[in-house]
Each structure stands twice: as C-alpha cells, then as structure tokens.
Amino acid sequence: MEPDVLISVKNLTRLYGKNKLAVKVLDVKDLEIRRGEFIALTGPSGCGKTTLLNLLGALDRPSGGDITFEGKKIFGRGEVSLCRFRREKIGFIFQAYHLIPTLSALKNVMAPAFPLGSGYKRRAMELLRQVGLAGKEGRRPDDLSGGEQQRVAIARALLLEPDLILADEPTGNLDSVNGRGIMDLLKKLNQRGKTVLVATHDQRLAEDCGRVIRLADGSIEEH
Ligand SMILES: Nc1ncnc2c1ncn2[C@@H]1O[C@H](COP(=O)(O)OP(=O)(O)O)[C@@H](O)[C@H]1O
Ligand SMILES: [Mg+2]
C-alpha cells in the first residue's frame, strides 16, 4: 500500500433485513481514498451514499468486508476502540446539523471534548472565528440561520483535528447561496490539508471537487 493512502475499501457490503428478505444496499468492490483528496460522492436518492458514509465513519458495521484506515482494519475491534476511532479520526457533518438545542454555539463546538475534560474553549473560539461566527459564540442554534448552524457543526467536526471529514449532504437544507458558502468552507479546509468526502446530489457542487465518485444501486460506477 502506498503511504498516502488513507482509506482502502475491499468488497464492502451492507445488507438490510434477514435471510431471504435481505436486500443488499451497498456493494463496494474497491475504493481508495488518498490523504488530502476532496471527493464528491454523488448519485440519486437511495443509492447508498449515507450507508457508505456511515460505514466509513464507523457509525455502522458492514455485513461483509472491512475498511482499512491508515493501514489498520477498523471493524475487527470492540465498541470502545471504535468509539475512540470515531472521536480521533473522523469529523462528521450531517444534513440536519444535529446541534444540541439547549447549548450555545460555543458549547456545541466543545461537545466532542466533554468526555475528555475541559481545556478546549480557546480552540472552539478560534474555530468559530475561522468559520465566520466570531461574536455569535453565545447564541443557541435557534438564534442562528441554517447556514450559521451548519458552520457551527463544521467547527464541531474540526475540534479534535480529525484526519477525515465526512459530510452527508451538508448543503441539503440550505439555499444555494448558503450551500455554496458551506462548500467553499469545505474547500478551504481541504486546501489546508484535510481529506474531505462530501455526499451531494447537486451536480454543480460536485464538479467543484477534485474527484467525483458516482454510486448507483449501491455500487461505484466505473468511469
Ligand atoms: N435502516 C434501514 N433499513 C432498511 N433499509 C434501509 C435502511 N437504511 C437505508 N435503507 C435503504 O438502503 C438504500 C440506501 O439508502 P441510503 O444509504 O440512505 O441512500 P442515499 O443516502 O444515497 O439516499 C435505500 O434503498 C434505503 O431505502
Ligand atoms: Mg442520504
């Protein structure tokens, strides 16, 4: 394996349902992601984008196959080790932001570090500044626009310096101007060295990425 390969996927499958009723919704034979890539994952609704992202981020377990991350298989281990893997290596951004409504923007960004104790306030403040939210640290999600909430979620994903950012239709709830702003932010992060994989069915946004992976019925289309 070449040293700049971050992720390697072989014969990864995910089935839903049991026995005769099982349906294979994902079947990825071969996929490599290199450190520093900016990849768009596209394809129609239901083609398996979320299923693949959830497996890459170890939020779900495969039915078959494994994912190698920095040369190590991720699924042959227990839940505690998987939890650490997610916390240390992956920054996840969801379409619906998933902020905690009762916490300020600042506390939301600090949330991934709650199990680790205090000491992340300065970093969280700096990240909020970087995503253009200086001065809004004390606001709760309800008092922020959709675009601003997604920026908080991006800052949160960056708190513990993940190697890989996985974004599942992060612009799906936003108008085109805000959606463009979020993509520009992801691009900036990529230019600063982060590996980014973003699921989108917006073809124009996808064309802006360094590489496009198209899924159809759970498999990667050859091109
Ligand atoms: N928990 C589940 N149980 C059964 N089927 C599911 C479940 N989650 C997703 N699916 C099915 O798997 C397929 C892929 O879904 P998904 O990964 O969410 O696609 P996408 O994100 O591209 O819209 C769809 O056919 C969907 O209905
Ligand atoms: Mg999806």
TrEMBL record:
Coiled coil location: none
Q: Which UniProt keywords apply?
A: ATP-binding, Cell cycle, Cell division, Nucleotide-binding, Transport
Which Pfam family, any one, appears in the UniProt record?
Answer: ABC_tran
Q: What is this protein called?
A: Cell division transporter ATP-binding protein FtsE
InterPro entries named among the record's database cross-references: AAA+_ATPase (IPR003593), ABC_transporter-like_ATP-bd (IPR003439), ABC_transporter-like_CS (IPR017871), ABC_transpr_LolD-like (IPR015854), MacB-like_ATP-bd (IPR017911), P-loop_NTPase (IPR027417)
ABC transporter domain location is 7-223
Q: What's a single GO CC term here?
A: plasma membrane
Q: Which SUPFAM superfamilies match?
A: P-loop containing nucleoside triphosphate hydrolases
A single MF term (Gene Ontology): transmembrane transporter activity
Per the record, the GO terms for biological process are:
cell division
Keyword Cell division in record: yes
UniProt organism field: Desulfocucumis palustris
